[in-house]
Amino acid sequence: MDTPMPMSSPVHRRGFSLIATAVLAASLSACGGSAPPAEETTRNPAVGMAKIGLIVPLSGVYSSLGIDMQNGFDLYLDQHAGRLGGKDVELKVVDEGEGPQTGVPAATKLIKEDKVAAVVGIVNSATAMGVRDTFIDSKTPLIIANAGADGVTGTNGSPYIWRTSFTNGTVGASLGAEVSKQVGDGSVYLISADYSAGKEMIGGFKKAFEAAGGKVAGESYTPFGTTKDFQPYLDTIKASGAKAVFCFYAGAEAVSFVKQYAQFGLAGDLPLFGTGFVTEGGALDAEGISAEGTQTSLHYTDLIDTPKNKKFVADYQAAFNARPTVYAVQAYDAAAVLDAALARPGTADGRGIARALGEIGPIDSPRGSWGFGRKHDPVQPYYLRKVEKRGGRFVNTLVRELTRAKAPDL
Ligand code: PHB
Question: Tens-digit pLDDT profile for the chain (410 aa)?
């Protein structure tokens, strides 16, 4: 039961910077990707250069997430004349692939061979844990634009590790009390991809859900990246007597899970809840009516009704002929963070950039204003979202704010 996922790939990628385009062409051909034709560079010697690495999945179950992130980063550059902190950006793009086996060597190449000043990206929590020490040891700042592994910024926080996305436990926890309230006396079944991100999201949810009086009917973890047939797990859920389900899936796995959840008749009986990744972007487009009514929590929906987000959505749509996702916003904000840091004095090396990252103020983002907390994770609200049909397509409506977190200096 393999459900291919149409990716929210751009119809065209705008030439945000001739320098970045040329370097991107070279780095993609070096890692075997299909490269756009190299163009002449228009380097301006007066403004200086910043060599930045971008590591996102361009292959595997999370490839659509990687494309969204690359689009978000490109859009920011496009809107800022291809510069960050006033410097022309030389962008090196590498493929993170599906996990640490591909992601760790790709990140190591950016640091050791390309000698980039800073790196943005990383989708997979296991990859983030695998590369963490390499960044710290080489004093290369890493701005994680998705992977939520709690321990990456955890108790042993490092000046070199920053994150513009979320922590797995927090995003899971944000829905706990709400599900407990909605399900009342009934119990909830927990299911997720079997790797650290899923376990942490389920763990965060479970803690908050049980603290609010919720009861767990059972838990299943499905082999990551290889599960095509969810029926055995769905049978177990049916037999458990649960009144609802909470899940973590993303990308192509989310599409397979949500479609089969509807096909095997669970959608009508057991309301589906999850972290918002399960109905995000290209995944929701592919899930369509199967996802209707699914309730999720996340720190973004493209329907946030602010001038900043409306402009972002319009610009993104004009550039890529697709609606932006949380992945695009996280990478867009990583570019904004680097822009602010590189504009500060003394940022010629990794140590200076890391120091400057600690000095920047709140980020005025499409998701709303947010800032780094003590451990370098975003301090931000989480929203309850519900999949509904609007204007002929399925969207994540913003129901209400679930948790309001504000940094003291925001
Ligand atoms: C993760 O591995 O941390 C991860 C991957 C995909 C998501 C969210 C988190 O959508």
Answer: 333 333 333 333 433 333 344 344 333 333 333 333 333 345 555 668 999 999 999 999 999 999 999 999 999 999 999 999 999 999 999 999 999 999 999 999 999 999 999 999 999 999 999 999 999 999 999 999 999 999 999 766 799 999 999 999 999 999 999 999 999 999 999 999 999 999 999 999 999 999 999 999 999 999 999 999 999 999 999 999 999 999 999 999 999 999 999 999 999 899 999 999 999 999 999 999 999 999 999 999 999 999 999 999 999 999 999 999 999 999 999 999 999 999 999 999 999 999 999 999 999 999 999 999 989 999 999 999 999 999 999 999 999 999 876 543 33
Task: Confirm or reject CATH 3.40.50.880 for domain 170-298+383-409, answering yes or no.
Answer: no
Residue 185 Cα to ligand 1 middle (Å): 31
| Spatial separation of the C-alpha atoms in residues 15 and 320, rounded to whole Å | 12
What separation in Å is there between the alpha carbon of 368 and the centre of ligand 1?
21
Which residue's CA is the closest to the ligand 1 atom numbered 5? 124
- In this prediction the pTM is 0.90
CA of residue 262 to ligand 1 center, whole Å: 23
The pair of three-digit structure tokens given for residue 232, joined into one six-digit string: 């055995």
Token pair recorded at residue 334: 């990583």
Q: How far apart, in whole angstroms, are the C-alpha atoms of residue 341 and residue 334?
A: 11
The two three-digit tokens of residue 89, written as one number: 């950006």
Atom of ligand 1 nearest to the CA of 326: 10
As annotated, the residues of the chain forming the CATH 3.40.50.2300 domain(s) are 22-166+305-379, 170-298+383-409
Query: Hey, which of 69, 127, 129, 146 would you mutate to test ligand 1's pocket, going by the most ligand atoms within 8 Å of its Cβ?
Result: 146
User: Which superfamily does CATH assign the domain made up of 22-166+305-379 to?
Assistant: Response regulator (3.40.50.2300)
Q: Ligand 1 — pocket residues by CB below 6 A?
A: 62, 123-125, 146-149, 168, 197, 250, 277
Alpha-carbon 234 to chain mean position: 27
- Strands 118-121 and 49-56 turn out to be parallel
Both structure tokens of 146: 């998705």
- Ligand 1 mean position, distance from CA 369 (Å): 22
Give nearest CA residue, ligand 1 atom 7: 250
Ligand 1 atom at minimal distance to the Cα of residue 127: 2
Distance 50 CA to ligand 1 centre (A): 28
Q: Which residues contact 105 (CB under 8 A, 6 or more apart)?
A: none
